[in-house]
Design a protein that fits this description.
This protein is of the alpha+beta class and about 120 residues long. The longest helix is centred in the last third of the chain and has 15 residues, at about 90-100. It has helices spanning about 15-25, 30-40, 45-50, 55-70, 90-100, 110-115; strands spanning about 5, 10, 75, 80-85. The chain is globular and about 55 Å long.
Length: about 120
């Protein structure tokens, strides 16, 4: 059963749990950077490691977690795995969050901290 607030229904508990799991995976700066990089274009693990500044085994482990969660996909090209994000919603979410955080926004909280 979902609660109603005005005209919008609250999502079911299963959807909230799934969303929390996705945000949990993206809470790692390394994984977020990988998804950000793949949202810009596909890459193999070596290229990703160079781009995000991570060790090859660590980037590979992050990719495995992201792949198991369905956030990234891979295809084989010869001996290489090419990783990509093909969910336009995921690309939009990552770009929206990163855009919001990189654009200077004057808020009372930031003004008080001298960040605005």
């Amino acid at each position: 059963m979902t609660a109603r607030n005005g005209n919008v229904e609250d999502p079911p508990a299963e959807v909230l749990a799934e969303a929390a799991a996705v945000f949990g995976l993206l809470a790692s700066p390394a994984r977020l950077h990988i998804v950000w990089a793949l949202a810009q274009g596909e890459s193999d693990v070596t290229g990703l490691a160079e781009r995000v500044g991570g060790a090859l085994p660590a980037v590979s482990q992050h990719l495995t977690k992201l792949k198991l969660a369905g956030l990234v996909r891979a295809r084989r090209e010869g001996r290489r795995q090419i990783y990509f994000v093909d969910d336009p919603h995921m690309v939009s979410i990552v770009r929206l969050v990163m855009g919001q955080l990189t654009e200077p926004v004057e808020t009372p909280e930031r003004r008080l901290r001298g960040l605005g």
